[in-house]
Amino acid sequence: MSAEMAIAVAILLPALGALLVALLGQSPNLRDCAMLSVATATFIVVCTLYPEVASGGRPTLHLLEVLPGLDLAFQIEPLGMLFSLVASGLWILTSLYAIGYMRGHHEENQTRFFAFFAVAISAALAAAFSGNMLTLFFSYEVLTLSTYPLVTHHRTPEALRAGRIYMGILLSTSIGLLLLGVLLTYHVAGTLSFIQGGILAGHATPLMTGILLFLYAYGTGKAALMPIHRWLPNAMVAPTPVSALLHAVAVVKTGVFTIVKVVVYIFGIDHLSSTGFHIYLAYIAGGTIVLSSLVAMQQDNLKARLAYSTISQLSYIVLGAALANAHGILGAGLHIAMHAFGKITLFFCAGAIMVALHKTEISDMRGIGRQMPFTMAAFIIGSLSIIGVPPLGGSWSKWYLALGAADTSHLLLVGVLMLSSLLNIAYLLPIPARAFFSKATSDDGHHGEGIHEAPLFCLIPLCLTALGCVLLFFFTDPIYQLLAPIVQP
Amino acid sequence: MSSHLPIVPIVLPMIAAPLCSLLRRPALIWPLTTGVGWLVFAACAALLMQVVESGPIVYTMANWDAPIGIEYRIDLLNAYILVLVSGIAAVVLLYAPQSAASELPQDRHHLFCAAFLLCLTGLLGITITGDAFNVYVFLEISSLASYALISVSRDPRALKAAYKYLIMGTIGATFILIAVGLMYMMTGTLNMADLAQRVKMVEDTRTILMAFAFLSIGIMLKIALFPMHAWLPNAYSYAPSLVTAFIAATSTKVSLYVFLRFVFTIFGAEYAFDTLGFNDVLLPLALLGIVVASAVAIYQTDLKRLLAYSSVAQIGYIVLGISMGTVTGLTAGLAHMFNHALMKGALFLAVGCIVLRLHSSRLEDMAGLGKRMPITSFAFVLGGLGLIGVPLTAGFISKWYLLLGTLELGWWPVTVLLLISSLLAVAYVWRFVEVAYFQPPPAEASSDEAPLSMQIPLWMLLATTLYFGLQTDVTAGLAQRAALWLLGGGQ
Amino acid sequence: MSDALGLYNYWIAIFLMMVGFYNVIASGNLVKKLIGLSIFQTSVFLLYITMGKVKDGTAPILGDGYDTFSNPLPHVLILTAIVVGIATTAVGLALVIRIQEHFGTIEEDELIAQEDSP
Lengths: 489, 491, 118
Hints:
A: mainly alpha, about 5% strand, globular, C: mainly alpha
């Protein structure tokens, strides 16, 4: 299969999968099999692209000219490769998990759920592969629209309200600011292609670059920079698999991925750092990190706490991009992968607890470690990876981010990173501690003392992702090698 | 035959119209009308191809040369509009029999078809002719036919709407008539090509200034530019759905064409914009229209009315593009004329499907529609996304050019206003989404999709909006060529 | 001053135009509105006719003794416009009849009042 074909197939497969799922809606078993095989096939196709990209190739696919001089085009570069591998790989696990969760939780309208899920993945892959800002913007909007039915899956007034906030924030920022940024970029630079070293250097004045930087940073509502983060906690009304893959991986990562990609390929690191505006963005990201960690500590609902944790972790990536130096960008790129594995593990655990014990509030989770030992063990691993403790993947990305912060000689930013790690400990570790070391409260003794884990379909994926967190620590080098070319001058 | 091709789109429906009112039997007249519609569309498409390949076509009526005879002159601009109008008519006619059966009195079908064909004749005639007075005559043919089409609805309020439209429309048309008379007074010709040359020689006279004033007010009434839109919401809401779909998609667009033709080719962009500063009048009206009408649309309780106000706003977009007076702006305006016609046509067809089943176009009756009519609801949402200007729909293309045009001119506040208005569009489209998908359907309701003969035309139009969202050679490309040509004096 | 008065035919046209226009706007009776509209249109016909008239001109007849002609073209045009005007009035009156049948009134304020209190 040629690389061009592979790109097209990787993007189309999930979309066809959605169609297949919709057609097979009558027989759930067949439908779920189809779903799994499509997910696996997509991952394999994405993998076939890896060798070429790793050896420096940039497979390209020009679809058609949408506007004169503006193509709908795909080009795979290292960052997109990494993102697509993470998204499509975790999709397989999430599919497995979703089957267990949706059945265990007796959710309605499963067919519609799986179909839109597949469309969202298709859009995320299109975003990962996009070869210019227009294509990225298109995919970004498709992703917003296709996740709306997932967020509002339960059709309750609460879901409706969350859906309004979700659409309201994501659409208004993307139409109001991102589109404006894209247009301005095109107006100033005359192109929207992603080019190593940026396209703005020599075209945009420093002030214009600063304005554009903030249009992109706040236009990308999916990156959940404060104060446009409110959609993310609200989106947690969705079923847990959605929260796990989309609101910890695909959707939010598309947001930060957009920012990193724009910084590298539109602004150019050198051009951006010469203007000095990037430091303001870095401080905004730093502020978001600390503030959202503090808010996370006060959340009693497990998913809400994880959501605020996600907001804080996303800002790590924005911070890395905003540092506009080699270490920062590398750290941001690595963190996309590391955080994905850590956070999806935590969400899987949250969902498993909900399915097995019907508990959503942290204060009710005393002593559940005895009932769900595997789940809570995975939870500890995920937490430690997010905190950044070796030997878990998260430690590497934090290391590079800290290096990058140190390179800018803004030591306050290094301090923010350190403080935030402490806050991570404070809001994540009490949960397993309470689960293992506290006695179960008397009123829910009806579950008994024995082991009461979630269905295997739920348990296996979360163990695998926890394992992934560990493996990523030891196999960081390929990722590093993959990403290194994008920061070479 | 091919040398007489330009006359086919006019003569064919004009002959078929009385035939329809004589035949009377629905089984005969619907196939006849539909057949004529498609033949006309084919002829218009052939004309467009011919123009693209070998330049403007000039056809002299009955071999009387201009300026004595009436001349039909087809160039890129009006060939583009011809295809648009005839195409929409053809698609709407496929849809019509089913919809008419439920919304029109049984004994009026033959008259309805006759009026529809006459309206089509008028619209195509306005577009094709090269004679200023002829424009007025065809304008009145199409207007009179559309008053009749609107009033045929079962809803008695349509009568009042048609009456209001008649008064306003006649005033507008008479203003145009005055303008044509004044121009004739100064130049002694009615042929547009001659007018274009001679008006330049006398353009500083007060008579020509008055002609321009009467003309622009008259046309603004016909295109329903804010604040002269008062006739539009009622007419669109109470007319039968298929009439609304046809008129909303074509009638205002043809009037816009007249506007472009007179302002750009006869008076010239230089006179209108540089000497008179006409864009200073258009720009605020367009912007007000966009914002006010979009905001009003949000608060409507009737889906047709909501779309009608959205039309007023969308006309504002088109006029805004024209008022920029740059190639990009004019391209945006022309492309949006085309795209909006397709989108609004599709949306009103979707409403027609809904009305067929619910016998109501009120939003509160549409609870749970996503379950009851999943395909139609989805179609409406897709069309709505086009109105918002979401990427991958045709609406995005025209918005892109519009925004780019404002950036080129450095009109920052306008850019911001346009983006805000897109959000208003989200708000009014989302009202349908929330009612259709979040409110439970009433207990007695069953799933009841519209028949295939209505679904197919609806999806044909929708497919074209999606197609033109990706393939912009036809829309934006032709629009750009036409814009360049108009700004170059249109000769 | 004499120039302005000398163009009395235009003054008449404009006067009629305003009378008609005022009627359309101010009158509350739908039929009276239509009458106003007709007067308004007629004034435009006069405008056309008067502009084609040449002083001492006759109808354009080719033959001896006729050397000054009025311009026939505006006169012919206005024949068409008169037909359009009649058609408009006819459609308008037809609408008024149906409005009377359905709502029982042709006074605008009563129609609006009906709409407000269904």
